[in-house]
From TrEMBL:
Domain of life: Bacteria
Protein name as catalogued: EAL domain-containing protein
Domain EAL: 1-251
Amino acid sequence: RDLEGLVRSALQKNLFSLQFQPIMSLPRGRICGFEALLRLTSEAGTPVSPELFIPVAEELGLLPETGEWVLNKACETAAGWPDGISAAVNLSPSQFATGSLPSQVQAALTASGLAPERLELEITEGILLKDTDAILQQLTELKALGVTIVMDDFGTGYSSLSYLWRFPFDKLKIDRSFMEAYSHSGETIQQILKAIVALGRALKMQVTIEGIETVFHARAVKDLAIDNLQGYLFGKPMADVEIPNAMLKDF
Ligand code: G
Ligand code: G
Ligand code: MN
Ligand code: NA
């Protein structure tokens, strides 16, 4: 297939890029970081959706290498931001398969000079389904580097709760499907979010809600004592050069 060829040649042809979406910290409502999101643009200039190319890259076994590129690029970019602003990087299951992820992360930090406290690693529960011991070992090594481990898309999937005590997460990122349902099931969603925040607090984990698209959404979560918010209301993913200077202030 065409897409396969494109994905295969993308690193070599320099067709990958990163966009960065702001993450807000509460209660002050300041930007405390950006999530790095991988983008692929064909040689003809057509953007390819990550929902299409990431699974293909994963199938082709190219994600460990691509993921290493993402780590290096994200750290290098973030090192150019003020000290108070961190970068969040998404990791895929296959990046854990080689066992070299902790040394890759260490290398990306060293090469960029980025302080480990300014790097967050987002993983979904899909990562945790297989080879539990090997994953746990690597997460423990990663934590020892001083980076933050985030459980992404929390609340979806099958058994998120059992992962909470088995793995050393610092932060829960509540899946945006909850905010999507807010307009028609607001009362129920409020109660679920309250319970998740209480759970996070009890486990000494920070809590992020994503998918905040409107002022209505922001108001809905205002009293929940959430640590971080993310969504189109605060900013869409953008290239580093497009980030307004006002967003890159050191507080
Ligand atoms: O912007 P958005 O459409 O980028 O992202 C779609 C999906 O792709 C999300 O689930 C997101 O987590 C994932 N994604 C984006 N960038 C990366 C990346 O660098 N690595 C991995 N593994 N997933 C990513
Ligand atoms: O799975 P993950 O949380 O890493 O997914 C990140 C994806 O979510 C990216 O595709 C990003 O573009 C998308 N995204 C970020 N904020 C919003 C939002 O407010 N609404 C919607 N629909 N998608 C969002
Ligand atoms: Mn994410
Ligand atoms: Na998510």
